Predict the structure.
Amino acid sequence: IQFSVSTAAVQLYKNEEIQGILLLKPSNRTMKITRVIYTLAYNNGTMTIQLIKKLTNGTESVVHTTNVTASTLMQVDVSIDYTVADLDRYLCNVTAVTGQPSGLYCCLETVLIE
């Protein structure tokens, strides 16, 4: 599942997409996020991005943090193994940025376990 974080210059904090995506988990299965992929249209620096979970009551918590290396256009992070609850919403928070990156997208890869 891919969503846009910023279609223009990447700024600190939540950028343009503050709602993120909603994950619907089947009631009889376990769903896990197993990989986070950040893609940029342009990147001449580094950044740190938090994957944030937002509950239906508005409470937010950090699920995972990824460091995007210098000048990378696609950062694949397989160090996540996070169990998803039904109706969890996920969004991104940029906590550090150098250079002038633009066009940030996030892709969450999930698996369903019986």
User: Anything to note?
Assistant: The chain has a mean pLDDT of 91.
